[in-house]
Amino acid sequence: MPLITRSPDTGVWLLTTPRTSYALRIDETGAPCHVAWGPRLTPGEADALAAPFAEPSNSFEGRPAVGEELPVDGGTRYGPPSLQVRYADGSRAFEWEPAGHRVDDSVPACEELVLEFRDRVVPLSVALHYRVRADTDVIERWTVLRNDGDERVDLLRADSAAWTLPPLADYRLSHVTGQWSAETRLHRERLPHGETVLTSRRGITSHHANPWTMLDDGTADEDRGRVWSTALAWSGSWRITVQRTPDGRAGLTGGVGHEGTRVPLAPGEEFTTPVAAGLFTDGGFGAASRAWHAYVRTHVLRHADETAPVLYNSWEATGFDVDEASQLALAERAARLGVELYVVDDGWFGARRSDRAGLGDWTPAPDRFPDGLRPLSDAVHRLGMRFGVWVEPEMVNPDSDLYRAHPDWVLHLPGRPRSELRNQLVLNFARQDVADWAFGWLTRLVAEHRVDFLKWDMNRVFGESGWPGQEDGNDRLWTRYVHHLYGVLDRLRAARPELRIETCSGGGGRVDLGILARTDQAWTSDNTDAVDRLGIQQGFSQVYPARVMSAWVTDVPNQLTRLSVPLSFRFHVAMAGLLGIGGDLTRWSEEELAEAAGLVARYKEIRHLVQHGDQYRIGDPYGDGTSAVQYAAPDGSEAVVLAFRAGPRHGSPRVPLRLRGLPPGVRFRDTATGAVHHATVLTEYGLDVGLPSGDWASALIHLERVPETTR
Q: What is the pLDDT of residue 53?
């Protein structure tokens, strides 16, 4: 059965996914208009929803503010435009004129619809792309714009797509906000009338917001209710405008850039927007998250089928005081714990003794590593671990040989100060020579020192965002920077296919579908406090799977919050993602080392479920009772539950945890206690976790299905 069909009677295009449908048509004016997005439809049912074009009801209205596939600036349109164009004569308008269509089904179980248009007056072409697959309800959309004339065109706004919701009694918006060390705080808020803008103007995805949304009618929860969700695959500045109209409709538009910037199109030039992906589910927020997780693992990540190793990172143990002997001592202790990947953090290169100097001079410090990193790398490999290093390729300290040689390589505006944040400036990756320089030293570093893993960091945002000497440079750099960043990562991965990379930007400042397509995991937050991490990880998991969520066990009192919680609690929180250790192992007691080794071994027993299973969130991580995160095998054969309680309150009810995703009518055995449980009891009546008394209690319960023959 084809995934994309067109009605010969109404012209409605019907896009079909495993559980949903998306329908659109070109109306009588030539504009691409939305028809439906929701539960599965037959072609005839989709035809019945195609309403004819309606004239404005009065002279103060215009075309509906939501309902077009890419609202443009022009005519009687007064909502937020997805496409806003300024021509050489200063005029701003676009009129749709259909120019053809095609369906590409050359990839098995995947089809792509392309609707082609041009402006009726100016030689500007627009192509709307839609891609659907047989194994996911996620629909990918993007737009390609081409200047077919002989004069420049400025794209003041060029969004990837607009999304229209059906009429609902009410609307609620789910999204995340935050800041450095407090990322991905989840908010579910009634959508106000008017326009709500979510954005980053910082040149990166940002700690302060993330380019995804979920919308419902205000009644959905983790397990039930209709949810519409979108996510943008872009790692630079971005903007999403969600609109609720006075007549009871809602929709959104989103893409690259922010107000005050533009994308110049020279004659013959083409601009392809990043992918905006969207999905619908009737299974609540939990089902939406699981659909995103499966999509990321299957169609975004390159090595999602691999089992990510247990990691040790030296930063919190040594800071900038890095040398071969101290790193080797840490590596030996890490190997005793069962660590599989050892990562040397900041301080191994150049004159790097603090954050004030050396950034940009990417050669091992001769006084600390007289023979380079290779002896340490070889020793780590002999200990049975992979070897990784921290890098920050996009940054430079003014006190560095690189900056003294190339002061023009940074973002700057002539005659204006160059603002330093964390004593560093941003290298202009929009320049091809800067991107080539970065690719060159990174390739040599990985090859010469047998580096298996890079922690790729970016510790400040843009400032004085100029590109002197380049025509339209101040505008071009915003998108070209990201494209060249992607290019360096793609070239590096092609040159060293065995290399694995973690995306980091002072924690979770650059996490999105675009960067995840080129990396293997993400550093979630510089805040490693286990209690704070419960909330951070809850928000992160709304779209991004545990397979990419790096989480460390560090020392107490925590460096940031000064909170002390038990070692087991810290481990259990980190086990909900990719387990890492970041404490100073030379100061851990033999009892702590033994406990940690046991917990690492326990994680290895269940990490296939965490990294590849279906995730279920149970309860409120900041509530009075017990909360949990559960991972279940897709075939129903086993599950793991990580349960947490901040502190008991006298007289509080002891409510069992109702598990999710277990097949009814079968039994499961607790691998630690041997206790046998009926799946129906676990899901309908709940599991009494039996957390120990006291503050910051936690538990790990691993359940395996009892074979039929033993019942």
A: 77
In the residue annotation, 371 being an active-site residue is answered as: no
Please count the CA atoms within 13 angstroms of the CA of 271 that sit on its side-chain side: 26
Active site residue 457: yes
Dihedrals phi, psi of 476, to nearest 5 degrees: -65, -30
Please report where in the chains the tokens 């309680």 appear, as a residue: 645
Contact 657, 681 (CB under 8 A): no
Residue with tokens 């299957």: 298
Rounded CA gap, 289 and 541, in Å? 7
> What pLDDT digit, counting tens, does each position of 251-262 carry?
999 999 999 999
Instruction: Provide mean pLDDT across the span 457-476.
Output: 97
User: What sign has the CA pseudo-torsion 259, 264, 265, 271?
Assistant: negative
d(CA 270, CA 583): 49
394-408, 491-505, 646-660: range with lowest mean pLDDT = 646-660
The CA–CA distances, whole Å, from 492 to 485, 500, 597 equal 11, 10, 34
**Which amino acid is present at 158?**
A
Q: Which residue type does 75 have?
A: G
Per-position DSSP letters for 242-307, written without gaps between them? EEE-TTS-EEEEEEE--TT--EEE-TT-EEEPPPEEEEEESBHHHHHHHHHHHHIIIII-SSTTSP
The answer to whether 329 and 312 are in contact (CB under 8 A) is no
Provide the residue count of the chain.
Answer: 711
- Residues near 316 by beta carbon (within 8 Å), at least 6 away in sequence: 528, 554, 555, 559, 582, 583, 584
Catalytic residue among 452, 475, 526, 555: 526
Note whether 630 and 615 are within 8 A (CB).
yes
Which tokens belong to 629? 């995160």
Read off the pLDDT of residues 674-699 as tens digits, 9 standing for 90 and up: 999 999 999 999 999 988 878 899 99
Q: What is the mean pLDDT of residues 223-232?
A: 98
Please give the Cα distance from 85 to 454 (Å, whole number).
41
147, two tokens = 């200047």
Give 3-state DSSP helix, strand, coil % of the chain, rounded to 5. 20, 30, 45
Residues paired with residue 617 on neighbouring β-strands, in sequence order: 629
Within 13 Å and on the Cβ side, how many CA atoms surround 323? 8
Q: Give the type of residue at 495.
A: A
C-alpha pair distances (Å), 616 with each of 290, 337, 349, 643, 656: 8, 29, 43, 12, 16
Q: How many CB atoms lie within 10 A of CB 123?
A: 14
What is the rounded CA–CA span in Å between residue 524 and residue 457?
Answer: 12
β-pair partners for 37 = 22
293-319 burial by CB neighbour count: b if 16+ within 10 A, else e? bbbbbebbbeebeeebbbbbbbbbbbe
End-to-end CA distance of the chain: 42
10 Å Cβ neighbour count for 267?
Answer: 12
pLDDT tens track for 575-605: 999 999 999 999 999 999 999 999 999 999 9
Q: What does 594-642 look like in DSSP terms, one character per residue?
A: HHHHHHHHHHHHHHHHHHHSEEEEES-TTSSS-EEEEEE-TTSSEEEEE
Pairing of strands 341-344, 311-313: parallel
C-alpha span between 233 and 505 (Å, rounded)? 17
Catalytic residue from among 217, 346, 457, 475: 457
DSSP E strand stretches across 105-152: 110-119, 124-133, 139-147
